[in-house]
């Protein structure tokens, strides 16, 4: 019982990180109509930017967090302007191939600058806090939960209350209808990149806080990110949040029956089952 | 120098086999398979396990002949492609991409963790080289000829298939699925056949690779070397053109191994950095080709009816 609760609590932490990453992935998928295979590596980039500001430049963590998110968004817009903008005219699969190339460039750029070894934001070891029923949580994990909830609320307010957020959802929902109403699509695309990059950078930083930084940390999460996106329904940011939590918790719970090395396979299996049973996802529309 | 050239051409040829398989799937049918490394590994391990003499560490010891290993590699890869194709080929094309990357990752996890089957991270060594004792020093030359023969057979099969009515349907599906459906073609079946045949070719390539290096480990089947290079080769050479695919394999492998030779002169302290730089270079090359010459160097070979030609 204790083990079960412990796994669920670990799963929620992992789910928070996956959810943050997949909100952006889902919106980009909905608006630009392509699966961004560089999304995981954008996550890594955000984490390393925070490492740059926090450890190498000695800034406080909150400042490093914000600056890293901003810098990742900046990189995302630059990449979009140079590469994706010109590719948008062609087939969506060409965009996908382009993003695979960007993924490799980003990951190896990180390896070039920061080396292949693991990095940490903090060298110290945290003593876990005992919650009721024998469940242990590190203070950092509570921080992860709080930051995730805060960011999700902000993203929600942005999508619901601002004009840009509404335009984004409209474009993701029905591109032609959105265009007819006079939405400036290029502007919306830019803001979608900003939102996606900011959230996925945050996910990377939180993952780095929870464990450590390595050049392949985001790439290894790419499959869970896509699984969460498809589970929630492509283009649906709220579905992605739900999908992230489901994937996170099921990955952790799976260790009860299969060796933990096969955790990534669980996300994949859930995704395949979803594609077989209900390809539109839990909260999506027809594809 | 000559021996290096032969070695270089053998690896090129193996990549050429992979690129031909991918060209059938992507170039002619529009199937986005980014799990090439997975089929490569399946082919390599299948043949290695079947043809090796018995060892205590892992499954094997069937001592079967080389040719059986190659054929079995094709069959097992084909079965895996069949299993992936069933749930994904009816859906949007990008779902296949995500599914294949997933299956490649799972195959890598299995290869890494199931020691009874694959000897885990230590890999399988001593994979038999066919006729090695007979040929001695001239062995690599013999193997090059073997690779070329296999390449020629595959090339011939693909060209025959592509020029047949079957190939016409594949291209029709790639261009417009709905038109093909309206013409009464079972789009799903054709896609599945193309996916399976392409995967079988990759399986053969994997087996040829295993018997050449005589040693395989999970390290060899990482997405970069296994999948991404093959994609770059196909895009650069020109998808939808088998000759272009081979040309792309030659050019890309020249750049990849040429930069390796260059960076080997650098001090060993920065070798990992140099390796990262080489990958960035290949990535940039891909983006440049996509932006400036998306049809590749050769482009698709024209398929015009002989009546129209005249």
From TrEMBL, chain A:
Record's InterPro entries? ABC_transp_permease (IPR001851), BCAA_transport_permease (IPR052157)
| Annotated GO CC locations | plasma membrane
- Membrane topology (UniProt): Multi-pass membrane protein
Write out the entry's keywords from A to Z. Amino-acid transport, Cell inner membrane, Cell membrane, Membrane, Transmembrane, Transmembrane helix, Transport
* Single GO MF descriptor: L-phenylalanine transmembrane transporter activity
| Cellular localisation | Cell membrane
Set out the biological process GO terms recorded for this chain's protein: D-alanine transmembrane transport; L-alanine transport; L-isoleucine import across plasma membrane
Q: Which residues cross the membrane?
A: 12-32, 61-80, 92-114, 142-159, 191-209, 221-249, 261-277
Q: Say if the entry is tagged with keyword Ribonucleoprotein.
A: no
The principal location of this protein is: membrane
Matching entries from Pfam families are given as:
BPD_transp_2 (PF02653)
Q: Which family does the entry's similarity section mention?
A: Belongs to the binding-protein-dependent transport system permease family. LivHM subfamily.
Q: What is this protein called?
A: Neutral amino acid ABC transporter membrane protein
Organism (species):
Orenia metallireducens
From TrEMBL, chain B:
Record GO cellular component, one term: plasma membrane
Locations listed in the record:
Cell membrane
Which InterPro entries does the record match to this protein? Answer: ABC_transp_permease (IPR001851), LivM-like (IPR043428)
Q: Which GO terms describe its molecular function?
A: branched-chain amino acid transmembrane transporter activity
**From what organism does this protein derive?**
Orenia metallireducens
Q: Which CDD domains does the entry link to?
A: TM_PBP1_LivM_like (cd06581)
| Claim: Metal-binding is one of the keywords in the record | no
Q: What is its membrane topology? A: Multi-pass membrane protein
What is this protein identified as? Amino acid/amide ABC transporter membrane protein 2, HAAT family
Which keywords does this chain's UniProt record carry? Cell membrane, Membrane, Transmembrane, Transmembrane helix
Q: Which residues are listed as membrane-spanning? A: 6-24, 31-50, 62-83, 95-111, 138-158, 195-216, 228-253, 265-286
Q: What coarse category fits the chief subcellular location reported for this protein?
A: membrane
């Amino acid at each position: 019982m204790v083990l079960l609760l412990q796994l669920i609590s670990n799963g929620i932490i992992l789910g928070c990180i996956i959810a943050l990453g997949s909100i952006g992935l889902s919106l980009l998928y909905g608006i630009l109509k392509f699966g961004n295979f560089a999304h995981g590596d954008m996550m890594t980039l955000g984490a390393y930017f925070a490492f740059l500001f926090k450890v190498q430049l000695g800034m406080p963590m909150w400042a490093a967090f914000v600056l890293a998110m901003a810098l990742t968004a900046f990189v995302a817009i630059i990449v979009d302007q140079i590469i994706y903008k010109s590719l948008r005219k062609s087939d969506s699969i060409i965009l996908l191939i382009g993003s695979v190339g960007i993924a490799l460039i980003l990951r190896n750029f990180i390896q070039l600058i920061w080396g292949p070894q693991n990095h940490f934001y903090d060298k110290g070891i945290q003593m876990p806090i005992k919650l009721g029923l024998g469940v242990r949580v590190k203070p950092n994990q509570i921080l992860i939960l709080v930051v995730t909830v805060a960011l999700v609320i902000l993203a929600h307010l942005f999508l619901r209350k601002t004009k840009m957020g509404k335009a984004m959802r409209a474009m993701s929902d029905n591109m032609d209808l959105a265009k007819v109403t006079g939405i400036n699509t290029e502007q919306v695309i830019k803001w979608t990149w900003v939102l996606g990059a900011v959230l996925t950078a945050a996910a990377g930083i939180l993952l780095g806080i929870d464990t450590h930084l390595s050049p392949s940390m985001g790439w290894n999460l790419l499959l869970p990110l896509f699984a969460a996106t498809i589970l929630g329904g492509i283009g649906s940011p709220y579905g992605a949040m739900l999908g992230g939590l489901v994937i996170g918790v099921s990955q952790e719970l799976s260790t009860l029956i299969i060796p933990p090395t096969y955790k990534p396979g669980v996300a994949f299996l859930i995704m395949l089952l979803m594609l077989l049973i209900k390809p539109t996802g839990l909260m999506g529309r027809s594809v | 120098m000559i021996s290096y050239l032969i070695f270089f051409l053998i690896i090129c040829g193996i990549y050429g086999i992979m690129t031909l398989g991918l060209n059938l799937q992507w170039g002619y049918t529009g199937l986005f398979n980014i799990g090439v490394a997975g089929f490569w590994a399946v082919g390599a391990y299948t043949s290695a396990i079947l043809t090796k003499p018995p060892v205590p560490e892992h499954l094997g010891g069937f001592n079967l002949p080389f040719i059986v290993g190659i054929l079995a590699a094709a069959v097992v890869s084909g079965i895996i492609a069949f299993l992936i194709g069933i749930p994904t080929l009816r859906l949007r094309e990008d779902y296949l991409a995500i599914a294949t990357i997933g299956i490649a990752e799972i195959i890598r996890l299995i290869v890494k963790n199931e020691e009874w089957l694959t000897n885990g991270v230590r890999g399988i060594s001593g994979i038999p080289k066919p006729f090695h004792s007979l040929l001695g020093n001239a062995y690599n030359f013999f193997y090059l000829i073997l690779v070329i023969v296999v390449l020629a057979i595959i090339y011939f099969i693909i060209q025959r298939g592509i020029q047949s009515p079957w190939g016409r349907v594949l291209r029709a599906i790639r261009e417009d699925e709905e038109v093909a459906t309206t013409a009464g073609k079972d789009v799903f079946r054709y896609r599945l056949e193309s996916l399976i045949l392409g995967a079988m070719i990759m399986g053969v390539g994997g087996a040829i690779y295993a018997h050449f290096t005589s040693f395989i480990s999970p390290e060899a089947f990482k997405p970069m070397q296994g999948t991404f290079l093959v994609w770059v080769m196909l895009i650069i050479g020109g998808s939808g053109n088998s000759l272009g695919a081979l040309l792309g394999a030659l050019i890309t492998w020249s750049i990849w191994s040429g930069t390796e030779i260059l960076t080997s002169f650098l001090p060993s302290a920065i070798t990992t950095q140099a390796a990262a730089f080489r990958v960035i270079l290949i990535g940039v090359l891909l983006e440049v080709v996509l932006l400036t010459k998306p049809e590749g160097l050769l482009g698709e070979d024209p398929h015009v009816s002989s009546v129209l030609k005249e």
